[in-house]
Amino acid sequence: MYRDEKFQTAARDCGFVEENQHRRGSEGVVWLTKDGPGGGRNAHQRMCVDDVTNSATVYWMAVTGKVDSKTFREVPALREWLEAPEEVFAKR
Q: Which of 45, 67, 70, 71 is the most exposed place for a label (fewest CB within 10 A)?
């Protein structure tokens, strides 16, 4: 299984659904989305899985209204971040 497929599996396991998919040959980007309860990093998340850079970037609307993001190069780190309560990562 390719790394981008592992990122997608991790995202789906954590409640994301595929929004759309853009592929050109073997290169492509997959967008996933998830609407969580409340505010903070769990609300209105979008994820871009990029098989060119072998990474996944999660975007969310911060409480202040600013869009924030975090990029992951390894699937275990993405899973840990997605599954952890928001307060665990609030100070990082």
A: 67
pLDDT in tens, 38-67: 555 666 789 999 988 999 999 988 777 788
Of residues 59, 70, 67, the one with CA closest to residue 32: 59
CA 41 to CA 79: how far, in whole Å? 14
Contact 59, 44 (CB under 8 A): no
- Reported in sequence order, the residue ranges of 1-92 that DSSP labels E, i.e. its strands, are 17-24, 27-34, 45-50, 55-61, 67-72
- Rounded mean pLDDT of 32-39? 73
What is the model's pLDDT at position 92? 46
The answer to whether 33 touches 16, Cβ cutoff 8 Å, is yes
**Strand order in 55-61's β-sheet?**
17-24, 27-34, 45-50, 55-61, 67-72
Burial status of residue 27 (CB atoms within 10 A of its CB: 0-12, 13-18, 19 or more): exposed
